[in-house]
Amino acid sequence: MPLASVDDVAARIGRPVAADETARVSAFLLDVTGLVEDYCGRDMDRRSGQSITLYPEGGCVLPVPLRYQTFLTVSAVHQDGQAVTDYLFNGRALTRDAGWGESAVTITASWGYEVAPASLRAVACSEVIRWLALSPGVESERVGEVEVTFSGAGSAQTLSTATRTTLRPYRRRGAGSITLRKEGPALDLRGPVVL
What we know:
The protein is α+β, with helices and mostly antiparallel strands. The chain has 4 helices and 9 strands, in the order ααβββββββαββα. The chain has helices spanning 6-13, 19-40, 118-133, 161-166, and strands spanning 47-54, 61-63, 73-79, 82-83, 88-89, 93-95, 105-111, 137-142, 147-151. The strands form 3 sheets. The protein has a 4-stranded antiparallel beta sheet, with no helix packed on it. It starts with 5 loop residues before the first helix and ends in a 29-residue tail after the last helix. The model has no long low-confidence stretch (mean pLDDT 85).
């Protein structure tokens, strides 16, 4: 399900979407939803009762990939065809005192937004409206030794800079970096001291 509906786009352009445009707008809404999810590194659209297979590496903690962590609820856990009930789920990982061993773990879960936040809906609509405004035609011209470059409407289906800025709060951040400093006297970079 896309982040916005055809009716949301119609409300923003101030007119009903024509019958011959509905399929195109619907496709654009699906496209922008996919691009937003890829850019943010997580699923925004609600998925219910889906199976996720996780591969433990031994140990007691089984992390759930970041992509699935948006409002994640786990309804069932199975390993080797057997239901597992002795686990704790903290929103990011499954923990089990007995450990997870080496065999695959399948969880049945739901994740994503029940209703897309207004900012995501606005982003989806604005991108679709921008894409609708693009039409195939001349992309660039050159007068000296005459050159004309044509473009198709589909070539510009990327997220705009403004959209990327708006999506910053929704992006999953990487591990980042930290600065380590050795305790003790400061290193003198001037070389050896001769007395």
